[in-house]
Inverse folding.
């Protein structure tokens, strides 16, 4: 069975399976630049990726909105000290709610600015706003790509290709 076949069997996203193509597990783990895929894969294999997730969160701490920092710090602390499932779940829910609220506030501000530009009836301002929005989307995409590559690096620091291969073997042939 190829690694791509194994991913299909695990219901991996079609984009990841397509990217893997004919790569072996070792090649894919070494070359992958998508930290989200790697994190999903380790979770599916039942590997404890809390330390890696904590490292990822700490890496982007400077981007965390001040109103979200307490909830995020709690979630990181839970992961680091091995809190029970209930506390981890509560911490993650609080961090997600804080991040959503901060994201919603930014989205609302952007929408208000966009509406104001259109309401002003200034075609030039609206075109400039549209161009700036396009530039911002491009920059955000580049930032997401860079962050995903950094996350992939962190995943490789925590899990070697050999550890992943062993986890797959255990998944396919569980001990009796």
């Amino acid at each position: 069975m190829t690694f791509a076949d194994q991913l299909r069997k695990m219901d991996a996203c079609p984009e990841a399976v397509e990217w893997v193509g004919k790569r072996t597990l070792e090649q894919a783990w070494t070359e992958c630049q998508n930290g989200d895929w790697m994190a999903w894969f380790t979770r599916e294999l039942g590997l404890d990726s809390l330390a890696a997730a904590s490292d990822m969160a700490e890496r982007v701490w400077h981007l965390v909105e001040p109103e979200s920092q307490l909830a995020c710090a709690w979630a990181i602390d839970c992961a680091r000290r091995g809190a029970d499932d209930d506390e981890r779940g509560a911490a993650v829910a609080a961090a997600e709610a804080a991040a959503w609220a901060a994201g919603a506030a930014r989205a609302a501000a952007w929408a208000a600015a966009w509406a104001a530009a259109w309401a002003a009836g200034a075609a030039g301002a609206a075109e400039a706003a549209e161009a700036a929005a396009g530039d911002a989307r491009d920059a955000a995409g580049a930032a997401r790509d860079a962050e995903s590559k950094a996350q992939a690096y962190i995943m490789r620091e925590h899990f070697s290709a050999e550890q992943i291969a062993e986890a797959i073997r255990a998944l396919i042939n569980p001990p009796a």
